[in-house]
């Protein structure tokens, strides 16, 4: 089971890769060319990016907008302290902390759901 501490560690590594590679920072999830692929086809996975990054990025992209903004401000901004992060979002520090806590819980739930789904697929394929 993935908990909030594990989510924070994953997000730290995710942000480091995002910042080093510039992967999709502010760009659409898929290029216009990829939108032309038939529906139901498997997405192309970049082999240069590890599985943990891909799972974390997928969970991040499934979050509602406010948790996304909080995580982006926490891990992908140049602000050093919570007060300036909260100020830039236009919320109180206490609210920022609560939103951050809720975002970590949502990420943990999404990651656990993906891990459970992947484990079920492996189990079903092994029992054919």
What does this molecule look like?
- The protein is mainly alpha-helical.
- It has one domain: Arc Repressor Mutant, subunit A.
- Helices cover 65% and strands 0% of the residues.
- It has helices at 4-21, 51-61, 65-76, 82-89, 93-126.
- Helix 1 packs across helix 2 (51-61), helix 1 (4-21) crosses helix 5 (93-126) and helix 4 crosses helix 5.
- The longest helix has 34 residues, at 93-126.
- It starts with a helix and ends with a helix.
- The model has no long low-confidence stretch (mean pLDDT 82).
Describe the structure using short key phrases:
128 residues; mainly alpha; Arc Repressor Mutant, subunit A; globular
Per DSSP E runs of 2 or more residues, the count of β-strands stands at 0
**Percent range of helical residues:** 55-70%
Architecture, CATH level 2?
Orthogonal Bundle
CATH topology: Arc Repressor Mutant, subunit A
Q: What is the mean predicted local confidence, pLDDT?
A: 82
Q: Treating each run of at least 4 consecutive H or I residues as one helix, how many helices? A: 5
Please describe the biggest sheet, giving its number of strands, its sense, and whether it closes into a barrel: none
Strand content: under 5%
- What is the terminal separation in angstroms? 27 Å
What best-fitting shape do the alpha-carbon axes yield?
globular
Give start-end ranges of low-pLDDT stretches: none
The domain count comes to 1
Helix and strand content put the structural class at: mainly alpha
Q: Over all CA atoms, what is the radius of gyration?
A: 17 Å
What sequence of helices (H) and strands (E) makes up the elements?
A: HHHHH
- Give the CATH class: Mainly Alpha
